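Exam revision sheet. Question 4 asks you to relate a sequence to its structure. Input first:
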Amino acid sequence: MDNNTRKLRNQDINPCIEESDGSQRCLDANNYDKSMCSAYFLTYKNCRKYWHNLMVQRRREGVRPEMPTAEERQEILAGLGGKPY
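Answer key, structure tokens:
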């Protein structure tokens, strides 16, 4: 596995692995008909947008690391009562 693939599969770096996998499974199940998977794509897009905005906010506030770790993200989501996307 190359470095880029390893980064994409790292829970601490990529907060949207579950949504990405859901999109890929949908494409596989529907013979790569993108029109059948728009809900999965939208969920993934909203996930990336949510965590990107949070990362930008943390960067502005000087919080390190900019992207919360997988553990921190679970606590954030639990505090929100689930995924906001």
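Marking note for examiners. The chain has a mean pLDDT of 94.
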